[in-house]
């Protein structure tokens, strides 16, 4: 064989030996299995409560072809429902309240916090959680240090950050976005100071911790942080009820910024009505 033929043969052989391109393989780690509903545990702290209206809508539009497996976490001998409480309730209601067999996707090896995190991720992908429900799930999972810090500081100052439907009890904060925004505006130390002032001025009155009040006080503290005296704030602001602050802010039509309306009222009351003495100058950015 000539050298020319040898080179051609080698070249052809090298083309044949080229490896096939790698094809990625994806799979879900859960195991598919049918389980009776009496074996399933739901209603954990990180879950949103079952909404009867949603259940009725599922029954009205029921199509078995669209039924997806219920996501389950098998932990410490219990099958905990991560995602699918409404579907389970729907199927049981259609069976006159009797237990039924449902398709499940079972995850193993998850801790409670990992369950809460996966629950939040599953529902976030479907965009079904409210802000309150999403924050609650993230707090339970421990995956969000900022939210954990907000909750800790609230509790350190005697408040409860209500993740369920607020009851209207004293020292219960139902605002979610406003509390998070106040923390981000002020930082940890000033945020804790805000809660201290609220607790000692109005003693946890439900109206003193409404979202608009929180936003106003946060703006006031941010603007005058180093000039405010805690004792003076408590003494002067406790002389006025939270309802009066709400009323005065509601009749201020000079700005559309709600936080600014309330911050203005708080500054006015902090300065007091008596002549003389050091007053806080107007420094808000309108």
Which key phrases capture this entry?
286 residues; alpha/beta; two-stranded parallel sheet; 12 helices; elongated
How would you characterize this protein structure?
- By secondary structure, this protein is an alpha/beta fold.
- 49% of the residues lie in helices and 11% in strands.
- The chain contains 12 helices and 7 strands.
- The strands form 2 sheets. The protein has a 5-stranded mixed beta sheet with strand order 1-5-3-4-2. It has a two-stranded parallel ribbon with strand order 6-7.
- The longest helix has 15 residues, at 112-126.
- It is elongated and about 75 Å long.
- The model is unreliable at 5-14 (pLDDT under 50).
Number of helices: 12
What global shape is seen? elongated
Question: In terms of structural class, how would the helical and strand content be classed?
Answer: alpha/beta
Detail the poorly predicted runs. Answer: 5-14
Tell me about the largest β-sheet.
5 strands, mixed
End-to-end gap: 92 Å
Portion in beta strands? 5-15%
Quick take:
With about 290 residues, the chain is an alpha/beta fold.
Could you give the topology of this structure?
Blueprint: H1 3-16, E1 31-36, E2 40-41, H2 52-60, E3 70-75, E4 78-83, H3 85-94, E5 101-108, H4 112-126, H5 131-141, H6 145-156, E6 160-161, E7 172-173, H7 177-186, H8 188-202, H9 211-224, H10 230-237, H11 242-250, H12 258-271
Parallel strand pairs: 2-4, 3-5, 6-7
Antiparallel strand pairs: 1-5, 3-4
Helix pairs in contact: 2-3, 4-5, 6-8, 7-8, 7-9, 8-10, 9-12, 10-12, 11-12
